[in-house]
Amino acid sequence: MLQVVRAGALTTVQDGGRTGYAHLGVPRAGALDAPARQLANRLTGNPADAAVLETTLTGCAVRPTRAVTAVVGGAPCRVTVDGRPAPWGAPVVVPAGAVLEAHPAQHGVRSYLAFGGGLCPEPVLGSRSADLLSGLGPAPLRDGDALPLGTPQDHGTTPGADTAPWPGIPTSLVLPVRPGPRHDWFTPAALRTLATAGYRVSPHSNRIGLRTEGPALERSRHGELPSEGVVLGSVQVPPDGRPVVFLNDHPTTGGYPVIGVVPEPSLSAAAQAAPGTELRFTLIR
Question: Which of 249, 246, 105, 251 is nearest to 175 (CA)?
Fold first, then answer.
């Protein structure tokens, strides 16, 4: 088992998410920074889709009941084992009963803790991911919780790497946007504003969506829009006119117009953009 000593502000179990259920109203969920999750798993010798812990800003501390190889990656942070410094972004063997702590993020937002064998809470619809919108999957961690650990794969040696190409944390964010299904609900001036204005990441952002602060986008059509399907990366514009980029826990339908869609590969950087980060959108075709 993995015992939770300090849960942090928001720590959840995440894997690749549950796909194929949007038509039933079930979001994808899954790790927001998928490349970081995959690399942490690779360095522990796990399959890329094994479940990990995703922390938010303040990190977490856990105690395994058996010795386990662990990797802390994603947002850079100080790592300790029973208070002693341990490497970030590389495998470390945590003895049984020792406390592995990922301290608050020094840059970025979300750190990832992978453990040899992965985390094995009961899967729901084929995934162990926590979904904050629907409530599916394991609940966000609380102090004193315990999670089952899986059996590590036998590689003959402890996993390791001389170097690990961890992606950098953005100091500013540029998101490409393809025109969305309702871009014609906005004035030409609004489309120019989206492509040229500066925004900032709002502190009200979460796993559902990256909210922005900046100039409002003016609509050319008013009135209600019947709810329709929305996808990961949709840039929805609520009544205040500030665009919201949908992340993994987004609803599967929405009633506000979608002015554009950010391609999925660009969303991992959005997952690490801290509140106040400068943000620009670039229109692509």
Answer: 246
Q: What is the pLDDT of residue 160?
A: 54
* C-alpha dist (Å) from residue 278 to 72, 269, 283: 26, 12, 17
Pairwise CA distance, residues 254 & 230, whole Å: 6
Give the C-alpha separation, 19 to 120, whole Å.
Answer: 19
Reply yes or no on whether the pLDDT at 222 is more than 90: no
Q: What is the pTM of this model?
A: 0.94
Please write the tens of the pLDDT for every residue from 194-207. Answer: 999 999 999 999 99
Pick from 55, 166, 67: nearest CA to 116: 67
Pair 50, 118: CB distance under 8 Å: yes
**Beta partners for 258?**
236
The predicted model gives 250-255 an average pLDDT of 94
